Amino acid sequence: MRFETWIVALFICSPLTMAQEQHASDTPQFDSLLLVEPIPQYVEINRDIAKLGWVLFNDPNLSSNQAISCQSCHDLTTNGAETTRVSTGVNGIGLRNSLTVFNSSLNYRFFWDGRSNTLEDQINGPITNPLEMDSDWPQVERYVSRSAQYQQLFLSANDLTISSDNIRLALAEFMRSLQTPNSTFDLFLQGDEFALSEQEKRGWDTFQSIGCVQCHQGPNIGGNMMQKFGYFSEINILQDTGKHLVTEEDQDKFYFRVASLRNVAQTAPYFHDGRTPTLEAAIRIMAKGQLGIAMENDTVADIEAFLRTLSAPRPAILEEFENE
Where along this sequence does the record place binding of heme c 1 (predicted)? Predict the structure, then answer.
């Protein structure tokens, strides 16, 4: 199941930026530190409702064959996603690579075509998709209503009534708790100038100077705009035309939501079809397709080093729930 969005591009940099490689020492023409920000240290949630959502997230009985849970494709013990190219659901192999649910609440829209704009709304997709959980809300609600465990959990969660709306509410509240602060880059943003190595700083400088930060911005370093995939060279994405599949408007062909780069070093394979197993290869593909440049090896290595500073520990609340 892919709760968040379909990865089509590891990261999409604006074609309005420079179409040639610059040196890392070049000064960006904008204040990049105003475009990015650290993940908040704390997130305000209702813990009892989030705990209910965690139980639902791990329950395969929400699917039509009682075998596929949210956890099946979003492994909370590792990266919040999975390591296979594409996900396997109730009716077989799906179409896209699963994207991490960590920090998903920081995205402004959901799914790679941007068709949902709230966590609650996007939950409908995996529940009802035949290639994912292949269920429906009446079936899910009947199962939950008959469970003594869920009756007690809903009672403990502000005495919520058991309904499809409140099941979505609980799942969304749980996902809001899955933030990963305290990456090395966050420490740097908070004023620790020694947090990054010289190579990592060069990578960050280059990330800014060639324009990647114009699209990968905000606390999630992405996830907050739509962009066309493949401005300067055609990138084979087979039948997936992104937003166009929803709107059927020609101008929407190959437009996808810009990917978040948080924890990107842990979420291989990359792109919507999982075609690329390494960050190095993904960086080269995006440099050519989005910026029209062929990056030198040292530049690729610097950017990869920077991207690895976006890794952070698993959400702390998971260990709490697992040990209760």
Answer: 70, 73-74
